[in-house]
Amino acid sequence: MLKKKTISKEKVADRLNVKQKIASSEGEYKAAQITVLEGLDPVRKRPGMYIGSTGLTGLHHMLWEVIDNGIDEAMAGYATEIRITLLPDNMVEVTDNGRGIPVDKHKQVGVSALEVVMTKLHAGGKFGQGGYKVSGGLHGVGVSVVNALSVYMKAEIYRDGKIWLQEYAKGKPQKKVRPVGVTKKTGTIITFQPDASIFETLEFNFETILNHLRQQAYLTKGIKIQIFDERTKGNFTSYEFYFEGGIKSYVSHLNHNNIPKHENIFYIDRTIKLDNKEDAPKHGAVQVEIAFQYVDEYKECFYAFANNIINPDGGMHVIGFRSALTRVLNSYARNRGLLKEKDENLSGEDTREGITAVISVKVAEPQFEGQTKAKLGNPEVRTAVETVFTEGLEIFLEENPRDAETIIGKCFLSSQARRAARHVRESILRKGVLDGLTLPGKLADCSSRNAEKTELYIVEGDSAGGSAKQGRDRATQAILPLRGKILNVERARLDKMLVNSEIKALIIALGTNIGEQFDISKLRYHKIIIMTDADVDGAHIRTLLLTFFYRYFPELIRSGYIYIAQPPLYKLQKGKEIHWVYSDEEKNRLIEKMIGAKIDPKKIELADNGEMAEERGIGEKVAGVNIQRYKGLGEMNPDQLWETTMDPAQRSMWRVNIEEASTADEVFEMLMGSEVAPRKKFIQTHAKDVKNLDV
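Below the sequence we write its predicted structure tokens.
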């Protein structure tokens, strides 16, 4: 995983100080609104600095940048449709029906504004005054970066009654901007082909794009977003997203695998002008859109956005929402006598348990913390959100008394459970208690204390644990065997989870503590490797562990510390020639190579799964090749386990990451939640994708 390089505050300030202040009429979007800040030269030298990585994440970031230009046009009220087409040869076409990028000559540079936008870093309508009221902010990244990192790009602009064209190669214009036709339409078509010399992969993931487009459609209500996959000849796929309900529809989508506690989804969409006269000219107004609904769950599901950019670390809009939610619910409960005088107030934790909420704000000049825009820092946004949400929630509770009683009742039960479990939580979570406990006896620790070099293998069962302990590198590899399946934390509160012996042993082994006492700097191992059998039980244990890490240690996943080991499914041997095989396709391919002839895969499958293979643990010989299928890690001796799964020089592992938090939430809720129907549907839908299934 490549780390994003950061630009010093001084350099950012220098760049922002050179932006022009251009007076223009409201809604005007011409060359005068395009402000030039910096050239394009550094992009190809350090692509990771601008798009995060040159892997799959960076590849998709290229597409998001182009799509965001259409989204910004929609937020400004000029575009109603965006169309994305995946073409052969890894090309992508993005079309919007907005105003079209200006093509008139830019006075500061002396060339067409289109060429400025496409070839100059930090040039666009988002930096000056008048081009956009609201946008994704001062990205430092844009379509010019996409151009620089594409072997080919084409810009077609529909405006001023003409169709304008310019083509580029690795960011360099091939000809001047020129008219190539006439039209009555307006809009922009950007076609680009990522550079194979820059990116590790050029294959866009259709599911990743769908999830992103769905989210953007929810956040920009009323916009129609279409995607067409035309990469494979004769195999055409298309989807269309349009949500008139905005984030209210988003909350409904997020909760479709859960049981709602009340019928009506709270929703408000209001633009508020700032009262502070000094701030008003600078910041203008803030649009606040909030939706929430409580479900029959213990966790909080919350998504915050500023100008359609997700803020995973929250910010001022989240602080404003949480403050207003707790204050209004306590006030309502007191006034209705639902909370007696002797009762203590509901805490913020009580009011957020089981809530699914989405908050989206639109602000003229967003102040993000860091290049990743993980946190919103505008203090005026907190005031705006508190004001809008307080008024809206008070009205909602008055107009929906049945929903109000249900919400207060759920919060009250959460409060009772919290108080009843307080002594359990305090006995385990108070500062230093886990640090003071001795390491679990089942843990075979390593001798090194350098966390950057050490690994923790979480192994299924004592048998596999024994082989792993004998076969490991004792200096850097620790082994923690787990007995059976751990508690499903998706259906349990933290206090219940902490008294589970297997989970408690795992927390102590990690060394970070948990909950409010979590400290990632105390992590004892920088590789935490889940190693389970390649069967249904192993997959279930792996999913339980991933749920545990995702819900209570998401920082470990985001930091790239969680891995999944890939033990082999087969051992192929012909004389002294030995191969470890990880899939059926690889097995059949290797057998053909070893015997120098084509085989019938069906016959091989019968040999592997027949009674003889089941009794002996070894398949029939195929032209002198012995095929051994491993049902579990415990069947391997220590040397084999080391050679195939634990030796850093030869092993194969998957690093776990979170590409899309809402999608991950949905999958975990579906697989591990209490609702059977969605889980059954998911299994039926994806059953055809399962190549090997042991029952």
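The CA atoms of residues 350 and 622 lie 64 Å apart.
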